[in-house]
Amino acid sequence: MKIGIMSDTHGSLTAFQKVLDAFGPCDFILHAGDVLYHGPRNPLPDGYNPRELAEAINRLEVPFIAAAGNCDAPIDQVLICVPIQSPYALFCTNKFRVLVNHGHEKSEEELLGLSAKWGINILVTGHTHVKRLEKKNGIIMVNPGSCALPKDSIPSAAVMDEREIKLINIENKNVIETSLLV
Fold first, then answer.
1. Do the bridges between strand 164-169 and strand 156-160 make them parallel or antiparallel, or are there none, so unpaired?
2. Is the pTM here over 0.90, yes or no?
3. Could you read off the pLDDT of 112-142 as tens digits, one per residue?
4. Where are the alpha helices (DSSP H) in 11-80?
């Protein structure tokens, strides 16, 4: 099973298409929020087109699971045919329980506490636009960074399979960092 993980597309159809290309075939796509809009503090990303991004999401042939971010609004559901879950999306495989949360309302400690309480193995967040992959208190924490507006200058996403999670540069498809899951 291959799972694509992204965050902070902020309405960029261009970034979304680059992420899908970098992922290759996937069984599921997880999105950690800020799907359609750029928000008042962010510049317009290249390829900003929320309507066409929504249509591209609706055309996906794989399940798209998203948690709401601080720039997502209830009106987005008018355009996107899958639920943008708030504040958490839970995804389970035979081996792992994955919690997806944008990361803008609760502290890292609070999210880790909930993860421990709920038996979560992998915590996916976004919001910071900075990629991160580390293990803390036995929980793998992954922030795929932003594919549209990276604050660390590399547009990125992550790919997970049964053995590992990889952060990838969506421009050149190079692996930035890997964490083993087993």
1. antiparallel
2. yes
3. 999 999 999 999 999 999 999 999 999 999 9
4. 13-23, 50-59
